[in-house]
Amino acid sequence: MRVRVQAEPFDPAAESAGFGQGGGDVGAVVTFVGIVRDDGGDLEAMEIEHYPGMTEKAIAKIAGEARGRWSLADVLVIHRHGRLRRGEAIMMVATAARHRAAAFAAAEFLMDYLKSRAPFWKKEERRSGAGWVAARDEDEDALARWKG
């Protein structure tokens, strides 16, 4: 299991190469790369802040929960911070499991957590002005399906 919070760009293909291999019981690898998108048409950049140490610990805890809940062979979570422009990769989740259903479910669980609970603060810089990104009901609804 690896968790990285970094300012530097990453190469999703390089990160995926060899992920989940080495154990004969892995039958599925799922990868997801989130990209900074421009919903309003005037996004210049997104500034992502976090508390070093606390953020990694929180993500590692939820990655460990996913690993146990879906019997994952491996987990990778990368999340960037700092100033990112639209179109840049912001995060990556990779899961390796015996079966595809577990790999997909664990990846979705991790993505929902990262979107709504990971301790990051996002500020959008738009041509029309700058502002902090507020929590969205649909993100909370997505996370709620994993409870219980």
How many domains, in number, for the residues? 1
Supply the number of helical segments: 4
Largest sheet: 4 strands, mixed
**Can you count the beta strands?**
8
Order of helices and strands: EHEEHEEEHEEH
Structural class: alpha+beta
CATH fold label:
Aldehyde Oxidoreductase, domain 3
Percent of sequence in beta strands: 25-35%
Specify the helix fraction band. 25-40%
Mean pLDDT: 93
Radius of gyration: 16 Å
Gross morphology = globular
Low-confidence stretches: none
Q: For this structure, what is the CATH class? A: Alpha Beta
Distance between the termini: 24 Å
Q: What topology, given as strand order, has the largest sheet?
A: 1-4-6-2
CATH architecture: Alpha-Beta Complex
CATH homologous superfamily name?
Molybdopterin biosynthesis MoaE subunit
How would you sum up this structure, described in words?
- The chain is α+β, with helices and mostly antiparallel strands and 148 residues long.
- The protein has one domain (2-144): Molybdopterin biosynthesis MoaE subunit (Aldehyde Oxidoreductase, domain 3, Alpha-Beta Complex), CATH 3.90.1170.40.
- The chain is built from 4 helices and 8 strands; from the N terminus they run E-H-E-E-H-E-E-E-H-E-E-H.
- The chain has helices at 12-16, 54-69, 100-116, 137-144; strands at residues 2-6, 28-35, 43-50, 74-80, 82-84, 89-97, 120-126, 129-132.
- Strands 1-4-6-2 form a 4-stranded mixed sheet, with helices on one face. Strands 5-3-7-8 form a 4-stranded antiparallel sheet, with no helix packed on it.
- Helix 2 (54-69) packs antiparallel against helix 3 (100-116).
- The longest helix has 17 residues, at 100-116.
- It is globular.
